[in-house]
Input
Amino acid sequence: MKIFKIMPVKAVLSLALALFAAASFVSCANDSGDDGNQNVKDTTAEKKELYAKISGTSWKTEYKRNAYNTISFSDESITIDDVQYKIDLSKDLYFDTEISDKIHKTRMGFVLYCFVNNKYIGLSNYPFEEVSNKTLRVWECHEDGGAYAFLLQTSTSGDSDSTSSVNGKYSYEATGSAISGAFTLSDGSWSYSGSKANISTNSGTYTVSGGKVTVKWTVTAGGNEIDNTETFSVTDNDDGTFTWKSEIESVSLWFNLLFNVSGLELTFTKSE
Output
């Protein structure tokens, strides 16, 4: 015959409370973990939408002591004083709360930050906000401080025009050490034809906005793909020729690539 010992009421209550406390701890731990995952907000799309406001624009300063003289933005790169830096819009865009307080402790209030050349570039003012002074505020953020610049808008903002408006073949007759050749524009794509040997690329894309053409191309160097963007003012000379003038302040990368020309302005004969 088995004999069961009956536990005192006080002991039973103590055991029940202990089991309840253990179960509550496990439940809270699980709930806390789930809430943490749910509270992580993906801001990538929001930041890309903001960046789209400046993508395709170029700016230059009117103050010589500014951190930068020129800066331009594209979906693939940011070019600062003619030096191009690649940018990944899914990884290199940040909000205030996503950056170490040490780096931007006195720089709060910027609408968007871009991480380029191992630095955070803070952006605010126009075109993110409706202000009368249409200047882009730029700050290069360092842990020990930084310098800000107001840069004047100079080029490719605004609605894009039809890429077909400039369709055609543009031929260049070279002199001296330059090389004759041509490029053809066709509905947003360009291609090169000519005698230059060992050309690193012979095709790319382009956009049109307000009498300006922005060409894009990719070259491979040292096993790495490098995206390039250059904007040209295009003038119809009313005699079958068109003058293309680069907005870069030193050497036209595209002219040098295609025609071995270091200048900023060339005239082409256009044919359909």
